[in-house]
């Protein structure tokens, strides 16, 4: 790390201490915890004891800065010795098993990892036996140094900036760089969406100009109102098309998917919704200004009569254009406000749901309001009605009963439902489920996570089997769309796997078939805590057992587990624990946190390194499929654009 970053961090430490220590420039242990934001008492006490060079039970600012200066500018040996002194609680010059156990127990608490006492003993024994080269019953500084040299990544982390030793707040650097939306990679990876938006904008401009020219006789504000009205016809038509879930699911299996951004229908639905709001406000405002001008020039009617009565006779149904227009404006504004994120995500989903049902009144009023709207409405409206009737018929098929309910960690619900007859689905599909006892009119999306079968609403994950190298990324419960996908992949993998009858050797045919072009799958699951891995650990265990330990071209399915609450190897408080977990995993051939053979990595993935490794494997064109929080989606999408990977995000 640069000296500039180190100096900024020292400046931050100085300010923190000056604000807490007061005039005497001395702080005690509690103030030390507060200032450096070190919560775990063991490490706070050890740091405090090492920094308190005069043993006065308080640290001066000079003492702290002197110690940190040693860590920043000291040699690798100096930093290793500091780590050794942290572990050597009694200051005897060696680390005994009890001290090592205390350190590892504190590491577990700091990383929010819960393991039985027996497993803690195993971790202690694994690390101690590996480090105690002379079997003396204690670990010396030289032995710890020799052990750390077996972990190059740990040695590398010991040489980084002091900022990572005591975890300061993130210091963001302002870098002058080209905005992401103007890069060539962004335009290449979002070509379908950008092409659609360009055509959409062009159609709006053309319709606006044509409508204005046709109504030039009515004055400028009348022209603006008519132009916006024609754009509203187009946008309401597009909005209806984007609501046809069943048709979009069918189109995903055709060539249309390569031309139109069908996987982003929800985003486009939102964009068109906001466009309708803007056009309607301008349309209404232009008419109000025009009515105000007319009321002053001809004097036949007052402004309020133009707006709220049928006396002027404006409109093709008994002069109701103005009244229906006012009602429509109120309904559209209400729908947009109630569909905002802060309403949907703040425990008021019912407000969003019921306000959105007013689309029925909006369509009816639009037909009455505008003489030509029915021409735009009839085709998508009929298809939408057919879809609704099919949905009602499917939901009333009978025989759809919940067989089993399991409450999983982190408020996740697992439903086992008997599949109704004639109900077919494909891996990654989801269904809307209604439980009348809870809410008669509410339907919520549930991912179908059962085994592979041939076969209600499609998602971007349907394209996995057309990929050559698929990277599946699930954050938390975002794993659910990939559960059936993984089982389906391994089912097809087993069908292609060949066994030699005279020995135990087996291999997988590399010949591509029409149904699956996959050559490699990387599955990445990111969880906040340890319990969340319990959701699908049995499934992942089966998938691991399906593959041979070693294959000529490496594993077909490679799994990567990350636990974000666990301290990463960059954190000094986690070095001992991560070394012990690595040693025990090699010994027992399974991870202590999940029980899988795949080692759970602490912290968050370094996406640049992850995608660099994927790129170097050269298994074919890479498609990244993601389900999880929108914030992480932006990060991953930006990385995909840099590496030229196709990115798909699950939308429900």
TrEMBL record:
Q: Does the keyword Phosphoprotein apply?
A: no
Sorted keywords for this record are: Calcium, FAD, Flavoprotein, Membrane, Metal-binding, NADP, Oxidoreductase, Transmembrane, Transmembrane helix
Q: Which Gene3D superfamilies match?
A: EF-hand, Nucleotide-binding domain of ferredoxin-NADP reductase (FNR) module, Translation factors
* This protein's encoding gene: LOC107569699
**May I have one GO cellular component term?**
NADPH oxidase complex
Positions of the EF-hand domain: 39-74, 75-110, 119-154
Where found in the cell?
Answer: Membrane
Membrane topology type? Multi-pass membrane protein
Q: Which organism is it from?
A: Sinocyclocheilus grahami (Dianchi golden-line fish)
**Domain FAD-binding FR-type: where?**
395-506
Kindly give the InterPro entries that the UniProt entry links to this protein.
EF-hand-dom_pair (IPR011992), EF_Hand_1_Ca_BS (IPR018247), EF_hand_dom (IPR002048), FAD-bd_8 (IPR013112), FAD-bd_FR_type (IPR017927), Fe3_Rdtase_TM_dom (IPR013130), Fe_red_NAD-bd_6 (IPR013121), FNR_nucleotide-bd (IPR039261)
Main localization of the protein described in the UniProt heading: membrane
Superkingdom in the source lineage: Eukaryota
- One of this protein's GO BP terms? defense response
Q: Which GO terms describe its molecular function?
A: calcium ion binding; superoxide-generating NAD(P)H oxidase activity
Query: What's the name of the protein?
Result: NADPH oxidase 5
By its UniProt entry, which Pfam families does this protein fall under? EF-hand_7, FAD_binding_8, Ferric_reduct, NAD_binding_6
């Amino acid at each position: 790390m640069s000296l500039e970053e180190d100096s900024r961090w020292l400046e931050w430490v100085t300010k923190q201490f000056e604000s807490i220590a007061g005039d005497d420039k001395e702080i005690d242990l509690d103030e030390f915890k507060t200032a450096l934001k070190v919560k775990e008492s063991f490490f706070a006490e050890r740091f405090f004891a090492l920094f308190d060079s005069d043993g006065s039970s308080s640290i001066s600012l000079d003492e702290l800065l002197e110690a940190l200066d040693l860590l920043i500018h000291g040699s690798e040996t100096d930093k290793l010795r500091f780590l050794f002194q942290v572990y050597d609680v009694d200051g005897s010059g060696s680390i005994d098993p009890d001290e090592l156990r205390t350190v590892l127990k504190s590491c577990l608490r700091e990383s929010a990892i819960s393991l039985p006492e027996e497993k803690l003993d195993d971790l202690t024994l694994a690390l101690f036996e590996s480090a105690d080269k002379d079997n003396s019953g204690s670990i010396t500084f030289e032995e710890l140094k020799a052990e750390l040299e077996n972990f190059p990544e740990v040695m590398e982390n010991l040489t980084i900036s002091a900022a990572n030793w005591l975890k300061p707040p993130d210091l963001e650097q302002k870098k002058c760089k080209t905005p992401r939306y103007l890069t060539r990679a962004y335009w290449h990876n979002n070509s379908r969406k950008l092409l659609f938006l360009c055509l959409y904008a062009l159609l709006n401009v053309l319709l606006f100009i044509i409508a204005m020219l046709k109504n030039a006789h009515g004055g400028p504000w009348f022209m603006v109102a008519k132009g916006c009205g024609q754009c509203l016809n187009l946008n309401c038509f597009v909005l209806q098309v984007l609501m046809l879930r069943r048709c979009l699911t069918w189109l995903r299996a055709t060539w249309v998917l390569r031309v139109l951004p069908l996987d982003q229908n929800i985003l486009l639905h939102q964009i068109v919704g906001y466009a309708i709001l803007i056009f309607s406000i301008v349309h209404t405002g232009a008419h109000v200004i025009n009515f105000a001008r007319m009321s002053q020039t001809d004097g036949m009617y007052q402004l309020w009569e133009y707006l709220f009565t049928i006396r002027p006779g404006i409109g093709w149904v008994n002069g109701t254009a103005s009244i229906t227009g006012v009602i429509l404006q109120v309904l559209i504004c209400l729908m947009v406000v109630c569909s905002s994120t802060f309403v949907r995500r703040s425990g008021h989903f019912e407000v969003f749901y019921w306000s959105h049902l007013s689309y029925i009144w909006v369509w009816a009023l639009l037909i009455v309001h505008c003489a030509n709207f029915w021409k735009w409405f009839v085709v998508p409206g009929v298809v939408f009605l057919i879809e609704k009737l099919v949905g009602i018929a499917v939901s009333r098929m009978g025989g759809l009963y919940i067989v089993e309910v399991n409450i999983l960690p982190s408020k996740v619900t697992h439903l086992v439902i008997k599949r109704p007859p004639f109900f077919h689905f494909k891996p990654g599909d989801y269904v809307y489920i209604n439980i009348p006892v809870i809410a008669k009119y509410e339907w919520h999306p549930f991912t179908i996570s059962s085994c592979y079968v041939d076969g209600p609403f499609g998602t971007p994950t349907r394209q996995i089997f057309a990929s050559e190298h698929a990277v599946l990324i699930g954050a938390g419960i975002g794993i659910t769309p990939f559960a059936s996908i993984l089982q389906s992949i391994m089912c097809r993998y087993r069908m292609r796997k060949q066994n030699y009858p005279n020995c135990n050797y087996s291999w997988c045919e590399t010949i591509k078939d029409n149904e699956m072009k996959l050559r490699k799958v990387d599955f990445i699951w990111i969880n906040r805590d340890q319990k969340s891995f319990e959701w699908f650990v049995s499934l992942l265990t089966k998938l691991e057992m399906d593959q041979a330990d070693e294959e000529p071209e490496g594993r077909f399915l490679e799994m990567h587990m990350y636990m974000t609450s666990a301290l990463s190897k960059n954190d000094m408080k986690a070095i001992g624990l991560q070394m012990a977990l690595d040693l025990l995993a090699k010994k027992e051939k399974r991870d202590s946190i999940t029980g899988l053979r795949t080692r759970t990595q602490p912290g968050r993935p370094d996406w640049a390194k992850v995608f660099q490794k994927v790129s170097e494997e050269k298994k074919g064109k890479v498609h990244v499929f993601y389900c999880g929080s929108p914030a992480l989606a932006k990060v991953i999408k930006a990385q995909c654009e840099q590496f030229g990977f196709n990115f798909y995000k699950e939308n429900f």
